[in-house]
Give the backbone structure.
Amino acid sequence: MRAERYRALLEARTRRPESIAEAAVRRARPASLFNEHGKLMVIAADHPARGALRAGPRALAMADRVELLDRLCLALSRPGVNGVLGTPDVVEDLLVLGALDGKVVIGSMNRGGLAGTVFEIDDRFTGYDAGTLAAAGFEGGKMLLRIDPDDPATVATVEACAHAVSALAERRLMAMVEPFVAHRADGRVRIDLSPEATIRAMTVAAGLGGTSAYTWLKVPVVDDMERVMAATTLPALLLGGEVGAEQDAAFEGWRKALALPTVQGLVIGRSLLYPPDDDVAAAVDAAVGLLREGSG
């Protein structure tokens, strides 16, 4: 990020905090959730607020905020990228930097289930709420829902997500729900990526709130995706998951899943912001290319 842009950001945060709200008001709103390829392409950057800073072999990859913003601004500038998912601190930095004009902005709502903690499943809503998202003129809110059958704290998160879905729908904002079945193993929360567990999590998420009219699902690419996606009529976005050396295999999985009728795009974070070869532009362009293939 250019030094003068960074100085302007620090100036706004230290001398003119009101300029953040002013930047939200000035932001050019997108005409649609979709880009010219007919899909939604979102760059995700809400991991740091949950204490999840790893990308590939780098344990603290996302800890350098200026580097993260540099990568985000580059990704958002690439043709075909039309959205961002982030917590207030990240979104506000991008607003001040002028990187969100015409972009779909999805605010991350529950980050209280900090990675690696004993209370991780009790995923409190510590970020955006529906009222704040509406006041800022953003397009929706995202929530993480991990269902651990052996952890009583799960039910509090289920209930909180249901209330959030209803509150967003009242304001006609997208409710992006990311559901998983999870279990603890060796003291850590592990996600079950079997087709059966993914189906179960999706069906629970689809039934949350007083209406599902504005609910979208954020789902992983797992085995037997055709059967998995047959579990709901709700629109879905594919998540990217962890950074790995098998990037070609990940892209092929996205390509196949994007052919399914309810899959409406991608929400990818570390896989594109911190690719194995560190070429952010090439990784983003390759992902957008998958969406263009589907629209053709």
